[in-house]
C-alpha cells in the first residue's frame, strides 16, 4: 500500500552533447504521509530543487514515477501549489488580486461573495489586511513571501511545495516567516515539502528531514525523524535534547559524511 | 523661482536667438529667402517688407474657400486622419503578429528575416508601387504609413513577450492557465509597456512618412500644402509648414508618452 505521496525510483538525467548523460538525481524512493512536513536538505548542486520541480511537475523525471493520491503526476497542477524562492507575484496585481487570480482560476464555482470571503480569509491568515491593496513592489520581501504562501494555500492544494522559500530573506525576517508558517500549519493542516539549506529551519519546521548526498548521482542519504511536540518554540528548543540531537545529526551528515569543499 | 527653472527658460531662449541670427544670415545670402520678420508676418498677418497689408496663413486656419483651398487646420487634420488610419492598421496587424513571433520560436524563424529586410526600406520606395496598386491618393498614403510603421510594433511586441519571466509562466503552469489566459493575464501586462514603446516609434515614423507621401500624391494635407507653397514661390510658408509639422509631431509624441505611462504597471505606485 503506497502512501499519500510516493516517489518511486526517481532518476533525472540531463543529456550532455558528446558525452554520457549527466545524472543529477538517482534512485530516490520516498513515502510521504498526509499532513506531514518534510524538509529536504543538502549542499547546493545536490538536486534538491530538481526533485521539487519534478514533484510540482514543472520538470519531468527521466525514470520512475511520482504518485499523489493514487494518481501519477504528469505535469504541473493546482493540487501541488508552489511557493517560489523569488515569490513570483505578478507585479501589476495588488496583494489581494494576486490571491484572487489564483482562487478564481482554481475554484470557478465560487460566486462573487464566496470568492471575496476566501481571498480575504487568506489575506488575513498571513496578517496582510493593511497591505492588501498594495502592489508587490510596495511591500517588503518578507511580506511578498507571505503573499506567496497565502496564494499557494488559497487554492487548497494537496501538497504545498516550498523551494527555499525564505532563502532570500534576512535571518530575522526568516524567523518571523517560520513562525507564520508554523502558526498556519496549526490551524490548516497541510502536507508540506520544504527545500532548505538551513539546518535550524529544517529541524524547527519538519517532522522528517531528508538529507541528500552530493551530486552528481545524488540520492537520499539519511532520513531523520524529528520527535518534537508542536507547537514548537524556537527559544525553548535550544536546550531540548531531541532538538540538539537532530541538529547534530544533520551537521554531521552535511559536514562530516558529505562535506563539500567548495562551499 | 528656482535656478533650474530659470535655466530651462533662459537657455532655450538663447538658442532661439542664435537660430534667428543664422536664419537672418541665410536670408541675406540666399536670394528671395524669407527673413524671420517676413515669415512672422506671413504666419500671423501684418505689414510685410514691401509695405503691403497681408493676411497670415495662421490668422484663419479654419477657412474653407473651396474643395482645393482650405485653411491649415484642415490640411493638418487631413494628414492626421491618414496617419491614424495607417497607424491603426499597423496596430491591428502588428500586435498579433508580434505576439506570435514573440511566443513561437518557429514563427520567429519564419518571419524574422523578412522583418529585418523590410524594416529599413524607405517609405518613398514603397510609394510608387502602392500608388500603382491602389491608384488612389488616400489609400496609397494610408497603406504607405501602414507598411512603414508596422515594423517597430512587431519588433517591440515580440521583445515584450520574450521578456516575460519564466517565474510568471511557472505560476501560470501550476494554475493550469489556458493559452488565452496566459496571453491576457500574464503576457500582455508584461508586454504592454514594450508595445507602447513600439507604438510611439511607429507614430513618429508615420508622421515623418505622411509629409513625404503627400508631397508625391498631392491633393490635400500638410505635406502637399508645403509642396504647393514651394510651387507658389511662398518660401516663408514652407518654414511655417516645417515648424507646424514639428509642433504636431511633438504633441503626438507627448500624447503617446502619457498614454504609455498610463498602461505601464511599473510606473504605478512605487514599483
Order of strands side by side in the largest beta sheet of chain A?
6-7-8-3-9-10
What distance lies between the first and last C-alpha atoms of chain A, to the nearest angstrom? 41 Å
The global form of chain B is globular
Strand content of chain B: under 5%
Cα-atom radius of gyration of chain A? 19 Å
Number of separate structural domains of chain A? 2
- Strand tally of chain B is 4
Helix content of chain B: over 70%
| Overall CATH class of the largest domain in chain B | Mainly Alpha
CATH architecture of the largest domain in chain A: 3-Layer(aba) Sandwich
Read across the widest sheet of chain B, the strand sequence of neighbours is: 1-2
CATH class of the largest domain in chain A: Alpha Beta
Number of helices of chain B: 10
Helix content of chain A: 25-40%
Largest beta-sheet characterization of chain A: 6 strands, mixed
Question: How do the strands and helices of this protein lay out in sequence?
Answer:
The complex is a heterodimer of chains A (263) and B (271).
Chain A: E1 5-14, E2 22-32, E3 37-41, H1 48-56, E4 63-68, E5 71-72, E6 80-83, H2 95-106, H3 112-125, H4 141-154, E7 159-163, H5 171-187, E8 191-196, H6 199-205, E9 208-212, E10 220-225, H7 234-237, H8 241-257
Chain B: H1 3-29, H2 36-44, E1 46-47, E2 53-54, E3 64-66, E4 69-70, H3 72-103, H4 105-118, H5 123-134, H6 137-162, H7 166-174, H8 179-217, H9 222-231, H10 235-263
Antiparallel strand pairs in B: 1-2, 3-4
Amino acid at each position: 500500500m503506497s502512501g499519500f505521496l510516493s516517489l518511486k525510483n526517481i532518476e533525472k538525467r540531463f543529456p550532455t552533447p558528446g558525452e554520457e548523460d549527466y545524472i543529477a538525481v538517482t534512485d530516490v524512493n520516498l513515502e510521504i504521509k498526509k499532513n506531514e512536513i518534510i524538509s529536504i536538505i543538502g549542499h547546493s548542486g545536490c538536486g534538491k530543487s530538481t526533485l521539487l520541480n519534478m514533484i510540482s511537475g514543472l520538470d519531468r523525471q527521466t525514470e520512475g514515477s511520482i504518485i499523489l493520491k493514487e494518481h501519477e503526476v504528469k505535469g504541473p497542477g493546482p493540487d501541488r501549489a508552489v511557493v517560489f524562492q523569488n515569490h513570483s507575484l505578478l507585479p501589476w496585481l495588488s496583494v489581494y488580486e494576486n490571491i484572487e487570480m489564483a482562487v478564481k482560476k482554481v475554484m470557478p464555482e465560487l460566486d462573487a461573495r464566496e470568492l471575496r470571503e476566501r481571498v480575504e480569509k487568506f489575506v488575513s491568515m498571513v496578517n496582510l489586511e493593511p497591505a492588501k491593496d498594495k502592489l508587490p513592489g510596495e511591500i517588503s520581501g518578507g511580506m511578498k513571501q507571505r503573499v506567496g504562501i497565502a496564494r499557494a494555500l488559497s487554492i487548497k492544494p494537496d501538497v504545498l511545495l516550498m523551494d527555499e522559500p525564505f532563502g532570500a530573506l534576512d535571518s530575522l525576517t526568516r524567523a518571523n516567516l517560520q513562525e507564520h508558517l508554523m502558526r498556519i500549519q496549526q490551524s490548516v493542516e497541510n502536507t508540506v515539502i520544504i527545500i532548505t539549506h538551513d539546518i535550524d529551519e529544517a529541524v524547527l519546521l519538519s517532522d522528517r528531514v531528508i538529507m541528500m548526498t552530493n551530486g552528481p548521482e545524488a540520492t537520499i542519504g539519511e532520513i531523520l525523524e524529528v520527535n518534537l511536540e508542536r507547537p514548537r518554540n524556537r527559544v525553548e528548543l535550544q536546550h531540548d535534547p531531541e532538538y540538539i540531537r537532530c541538529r547534530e545529526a544533520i551537521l554531521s551528515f552535511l559536514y562530516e559524511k558529505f562535506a563539500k569543499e567548495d562551499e | 523661482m528656482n535656478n533650474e527653472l530659470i535655466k530651462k527658460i533662459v537657455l532655450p531662449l538663447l538658442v532661439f536667438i542664435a537660430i534667428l541670427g543664422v536664419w537672418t544670415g541665410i536670408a541675406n545670402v540666399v536670394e528671395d529667402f524669407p527673413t524671420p520678420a517676413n515669415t512672422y508676418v506671413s504666419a500671423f498677418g501684418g505689414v510685410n517688407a514691401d509695405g503691403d497689408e497681408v493676411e497670415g496663413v495662421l490668422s484663419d486656419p479654419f477657412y474653407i474657400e473651396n474643395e482645393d483651398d482650405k485653411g491649415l487646420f484642415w490640411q493638418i487634420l487631413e494628414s492626421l486622419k491618414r496617419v491614424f488610419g495607417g497607424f491603426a492598421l499597423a496596430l491591428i496587424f502588428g500586435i498579433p503578429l508580434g505576439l506570435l513571433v514573440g511566443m513561437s520560436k518557429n514563427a520567429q524563424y519564419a518571419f524574422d528575416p523578412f522583418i529585418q529586410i523590410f524594416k529599413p526600406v524607405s517609405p518613398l520606395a514603397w510609394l510608387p508601387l502602392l500608388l500603382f496598386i491602389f491608384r488612389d491618393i488616400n489609400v496609397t498614403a494610408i497603406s504607405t504609413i501602414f507598411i512603414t510603421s508596422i515594423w517597430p510594433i512587431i519588433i517591440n511586441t515580440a521583445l515584450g513577450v520574450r521578456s516575460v519571466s519564466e517565474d510568471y509562466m511557472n505560476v501560470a503552469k501550476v494554475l493550469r492557465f489556458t493559452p488565452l489566459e496566459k496571453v491576457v493575464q500574464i503576457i500582455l501586462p508584461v508586454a504592454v509597456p514594450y508595445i507602447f514603446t513600439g507604438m510611439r516609434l511607429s507614430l513618429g515614423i508615420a508622421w515623418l512618412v505622411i509629409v513625404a507621401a503627400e508631397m508625391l500624391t498631392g491633393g490635400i494635407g500638410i505635406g502637399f500644402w508645403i509642396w504647393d507653397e514651394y510651387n507658389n514661390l511662398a518660401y516663408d510658408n514652407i518654414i511655417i509648414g516645417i515648424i507646424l509639422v514639428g509642433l504636431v509631431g511633438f504633441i503626438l509624441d507627448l500624447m503617446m508618452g502619457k498614454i504609455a505611462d498610463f498602461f505601464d504597471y511599473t510606473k504605478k505606485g512605487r514599483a
